[in-house]
Write a structure and sequence with these properties.
There is one protein chain. The protein is of the alpha+beta class. It contains 6 helices and 16 strands. The chain has helices at 81-92, 126-139, 218-223, 249-259, 261-266, 291-312; strands spanning 17-23, 28-45, 52-53, 67-73, 97-98, 103-104, 107-111, 156-157, 167-168, 171-178, 181-188, 194-196, 203-205, 238-245, 267-268, 278-287. The strands form 4 sheets. Strands 1, 2, 3, 4, 7, 10, 11, 14 and 16 form a 9-stranded mixed β-sheet that branches. It has a 3-stranded antiparallel β-sheet with strand order 13-12-15. A two-stranded antiparallel sheet has the order 5-6. Helix 1 packs across helix 2 (126-139) and helix 4 crosses helix 6. The model has no long low-confidence stretch (mean pLDDT 92).
């Protein structure tokens, strides 16, 4: 069935709420995607240096089969504390897995390295997670802002030749529909490689030429032996795919695995030893659809969300954006 555009934001999916906490001065933030009623979760981690929370819980053989929130955060491993604030705010709203003596919100998350932007000593914490969670619940179905916001605040791309030739990226989003089936993707794009339009192959952002006015070819830079990587593990693209499909945990995991191919469609190179690439899936269970259809639609949405993250960014912290070039 051909994909149609009938929704513009992940927040238009019934039962889904999302918002950001952004510190523009420090160049960091977090993005929270909520399903208070509980979704079926899945995850795929392909990067060589991930910073994640509650990914083992999402494995098909584990017993907990509900997911209340996904937190995408800056701050490297320090940013994992933002998820604690989300869990506390959800508990305050009586949202979570009922374990008899309390309700425990199931919150998964992943972080990216943005310490080279703004202030390296400021990272998203529990208060940022609480703030974003509260904003999501209060803002109901307002469209999710994109660009230099939330987990995208300090994102950069094209770092294989060093920070002097890198570019600003950000948080992107795309929603794809096929009949009643919806797949929405949110991506914070912090890759070491080039970002391309997955539909046309057009290069959007990445390593710049030495004069800084045009785009070089990251793969050629890498193969030519000129890669510098002075900042080490400074990369990672983290994403969440939300669908209204009815999936088991095993099926949600398969959708996450299929959607991870979008990274290869839109980023080159990807899944390197210095990336922590992670894809979460949240399925609300409202529509019956074949897993392969869901996975294919999710892959399209995520590829376009990655491209959107590069296009929506504005130059900041000394890094020009695609808009500037």
């Amino acid at each position: 069935m051909p994909s149609q555009k009938t929704m513009e934001s992940v927040t238009q999916i019934p039962g889904i709420y999302a918002a950001h906490a952004t510190n523009a001065t420090a160049g960091t933030g977090c993005t929270v995607i909520l399903c208070p009623a509980g979704a079926t979760g899945g995850v795929d981690v392909r990067g060589g240096a991930p910073a994640t929370r509650e990914t083992d819980l999402l494995r098909p053989e584990e017993t907990v089969d509900v997911l209340h929130a996904v937190v995408l955060s800056g701050g490297s491993a320090y940013g994992l504390s933002a998820a604690c604030g989300v869990a506390e705010e959800l508990e305050r709203h009586d949202i979570g897995l009922d374990v008899g003596v309390a309700k425990v919100p199931i919150v998964s998350g992943a972080c990216l390295f943005d310490l080279a932007c703004g202030d390296a000593h400021v990272r998203p914490g529990a208060e940022d997670g609480r703030s974003a969670c509260a904003a999501a619940l209060e803002g109901a179905h307002e469209p999710l802002p994109r660009g230099n916001v939330g987990a995208g605040a300090g994102c950069t791309v094209g770092k294989l030749a060093g920070p002097a030739r890198a570019m600003k990226s950000g948080l992107g989003e795309d929603v794809e529909c096929a009949g009643e089936l919806v797949c929405a993707a949110v991506a914070a794009v912090n890759a070491c490689g080039d970002v391309r339009d997955p539909d046309t192959g057009e290069k959007i952002a990445g390593v710049r030429t030495e004069d800084g006015v045009a785009l070089a070819d990251t793969l050629e830079v890498l193969l030519g032996g000129y890669a510098q990587m002075p900042l080490g593990r400074t990369n990672t693209t983290i994403s969440c795919v939300v669908t209204n499909a009815r999936l088991t945990k095993a099926q949600a995991t398969k959708v996450a695995q299929m959607a991870a191919d979008a990274y290869a469609h839109a980023i080159s190179p990807t899944h390197t030893t210095n990336d922590g690439d992670t894809v979460f899936v949240m399925a609300t269970g409202d529509v019956e659809a074949p897993v392969d259809v869901v996975g294919s639609l999710a892959t399209r949405a995520l590829g376009r969300a990655i491209a959107d993250g590069a296009r929506q960014a504005e130059g900041a912290y000394g890094y020009p954006s695609a808009r500037d070039l």
